[in-house]
Please model this.
Amino acid sequence: MRRVFITLFGACFLLFNSQTRLHAEPKKFHAETLQIASDLPVLTLKKFKKLRKQADVQVLDTRSSDIFLQGFVPKSINIGFKGPFDHFLGQVFPDKTQKFLLITDLEDKQAVTDHLLKLGYTRIVGVLEGGFASWKNSENVDSLKNINASQFKRRSDEGHIVDVRTDKEFANGHIDNAMNIPLTDFVNFGSTLKKDDAQLYVHCQSGYRSAVAVSILSAKGFKYICNIQGGYKALQEELKENQ
Model:
């Protein structure tokens, strides 16, 4: 009887010990993840510029779209942190080994880096010290036109309308003469458009996706791009008010 008791006690001890280790490992990993976030390099402008030249490094700007469009680092991609960030980050950059240089609002720097790490994007090269202002003070800046629905109505005949919503959204209603190029096909996005002198008026449903889209088009070398604020929702309201 004594032998049976000792055997059962030993088995219970081994099971408890293994369960303790299983629960401890995620905590250890989480601690290591936070350690990486706190050690994220804050880069001088000189270092940022040098790293930006590497072919496998992408500048990710997480500021709001309205602020981004007023001025940004050339060839940077905008995915606003205050929005459906997780969803579109995963679609634009499905490869979680992508290397990032970050430009963020100064107050969001830690939140953005921690969030990227939690999503599995661990190859963050660094964040620009002083944010976009550091770049703007001494380097060339790109910007994109950002017009409202009323302004678009007065000039829409001057170029092409690009609707970046899904096929289903487009089928449920769209602006006359608009071409549907869903933003979901990020790898090939923009490949069907010609880089000519025609103005591209880009919109989505409410404005978030179109800002991502115009940043991608700009990074791919398109020059004549215009974002429509408020997207299809604002365009519909404009049409109703003027019927």
In short: Residues 1-37 have pLDDT under 50 and may be disordered. Strands lie at 42-43, 57-61, 77-78, 99-103, 124-128, 145-147, 159-163, 178-180, 199-203, 225-228.
